[in-house]
Amino acid sequence: MSSFRAGIIAPVVILMALVLAPSAWAGFGFPAEGGMEVSITNQDGTPDLQAGSHPFAYATRLAINTEEREGHTAPAGGDVKDTEASLPPGLVGDPSSVPQCSQEQFRAYYFENLFGFKESCPDQSQIGIMELTIGGVKYWPEVDNLVPQRGYPAEFGFRVLGIPVVLVPRVRTGSDYGITATFANAPDAFTFTEGKLTLWGVPADPAHDRERGPCWGSSGYSRDAPEGGECPGGISRPFLSLPTSCAGPLHFSARVDSYEDPGVYSETTTTTPSLTGCEKLGFAPNVITQPEPAQAASPSGLSVEIQVPQTYDNPAGLAESNLKDTTVTLPAGVAVNPSAGDGLAGCSEEQFGLHDDSEVACPEASKIGEVEITTPLLENPLRGGVYLAQQGNLPGNGSNPFGSLVAIYMAFKDPVSGVLVKIAGEVTPDPVTGQLVTRFLDNPEVPFNSLKLSFFAGPRGAIVNPPLCGSYTTSTEMTPWSGGAPATPAWTFQINSGPGGSPCTTTQPFNPQLVSGTVSNQAGGFTPYSLTFFRSDGEQNLARIQVTTPPGLLGTLTGVALCGEPQAQQGTCGPESLIGGVTVGVGAGSNPYYVTGKAYLTGSYNGAPYGLSFVVPAIAGPLNLGTVVVRSAVSVNPTTAALTVTSEPLPQILQGVPLHIRAVNVTLNREHFIFNPTNCHPMSINATLTSALGASVPVSTRFQATNCRALSFTPKFTVTTSGKTSRANGASLDARITVPPGAQANFAKVKVALPKALPSRLTTLQKACAAATFEANPANCPAASVIGVVRATTPLLPVQLTGPVYFVSHGGEAFPSLVVVLQGYGVRVNLTAATFISKTGITSSTFNAIPDVPVTSFELYLPEGKYSALAANGNLCTKKLTMPTTFIAQNGTEINQSTPIGVTGCTKPKPKAKKASNTRRTTR
What is the pTM of this model? Predict the structure, then answer.
């Protein structure tokens, strides 16, 4: 992270110092050689190559082509208009180290004699000497440190021929943050032909006393040597400091344009040898981090302060090495908070203007914190904002310089000096744990004392704290520009309370809640259905959901296309499979961020006949984490037809961003899809929720349909048997039920009793399939146990259900049960009837638990054959057969009737069966 200072400038002004080049006229600009000379020296005149030192003197000499004009030497091709001199990064000056001359003092002067002018600036404000040749005459004006005008980091001034000349150093914002000094719009009277600017590293050094103020000469005109005397400076503090890097030679450049061709610049460059002695530089940074508030599993702000102690005030010492690279690793458990995405925006690289000196134009909604930096080079701290960079890892979206999911920009400015610093940092969340690592590389090579980052707190704080109380350590790696070993300061903070200030706990609880139900409770009616799971901050994260609906709360698959693979897995199902939506609340705090998606019905999944594909675009404000697809298996209870939905594990982290799922809502609202039971007894919707740590909790919510009594129950039941029977093949039975359209209650229980003329066939009963074999796989039952076939039509499915009818022996029962297996469209439902044979030989079968499922037709056919279910007992053509029948609906309506059995295949036509005369209907 860095520092930035700018006002700092230093030798910065190398300015117009233009040196006569006696070469042949070559047009306006610098000669091919010797256009720029720079020296950095000790007091004895030897080169000062010590990194971080405060040199005795820094001098810049510029030379441009010249020509003879009107009897004197002048710049070739036109007079100089603007001069710029650029210093290498790290070569800085501290204007505050030297007393300043006010603008009023600088511009107020008086004649000392006919040939010179005396400035009013105090002697202690002098920082060096300028040597100029104008029109063949040399001048040696003193250079003073001025009180800069607002918006300038510093100003240095001198007078020539009574004309004030001001050099303005500026920071190269958006570039290398070195200093460029400018002298713009030189007066027309200035036909500079040579110039040399010398700045003192420690202006108050007594060695400069003979060159200061009146000791140098009262006029600054035609002086080759000081006049002598004692002219002491002020407080002895360094003004100049050399870079703290020894990586290579120092590069200097300058450029000038002319009044004759403004804006067309001639440029020149030079270098000085690489600095040495970087190993002598100190480097002892510190770091302080603190979440705000320090509450476990809660959204939080975060303050980070990087301190680099400076030794800047010691004129005989060396500067502290500047900070080059910074890596800050926050403790495990501190992570990006998805809740922060609500109302948040991203700032593009263009809006931030990372590589130029424009003002920051980031959206206010992208601001996530504030930053403040103090530097010994400026009196005032620089303050500014921290912005979330626009995501850059999406295809075709290079919107931050790292191409990363998360990056931040920092911009801070001193409104007084106008210094603006802009830097970018890459934030890398660990893809498994979410731990955050932030890197700021190649920071500006300038000193700073303290950099404070404060991320906003509140319910939508940018980070979330670790889940438990305790000590957490921030580690860092800070690399100096001096090239020495990185420093690794660390800081430990405490999480000392639970969410909302609650007491600390040693483990995370898991107490999720369930809210579920239908919009309308009208029995048998279509209705949207919704269920929501949620948990509180501080609880274990939700990882898996299993829901079992009450019997009769079902969906109509007729008209809904089942999404196939791989579309279901890829999240590309079509609208023909859409049955509803899903909303997921993510993030810590009282205001989770909600993302919405769609729910699709799929074909077989994970061994279940059906599945669900929940497709949710994981987009939280400016962060796009991709599309999440969560699959669920939908199984059908073979006895009750109740549905059980079992989800695959919910994602816990995406691209290093922990989701902290707080709530999941599923709403099934396809028209004419979900419908209510026709049973109005109190029931419940049950679920088992499993946490990411393996805890499992059962939850439920009450469910009850209403107005069941308003439903009709008018089934029609016909039964026939073949009159042609034999002892070898027994008898047949064909029983059919039809239900008229309309609001009908579904069957709950059916009991029938066969006439004595149609007894059970004991030899077939003895062939019953063992219950264990049947439960494992009915296909493995002996063929003799299969006694018939069944067909049923339900509006729920687009196909008819068919299947075999078995005799199944359940250990403790006196007689085998009759089990009807209905299969189709991936569904299998077993209807079990208890069999009882009275002492008089009458067989009765009772279906005690029929699923609450609408059926429009049902046919059970027991054929004749070697292993027929019924035996023949006399000539059926000569008998009047009836079947005592009881139908009980899910709403309690009961129908009792004696159903006539029609006999077919007789030689003489049988009269048409009359309606039962003893039908009784009761409602419970």
Answer: 0.86
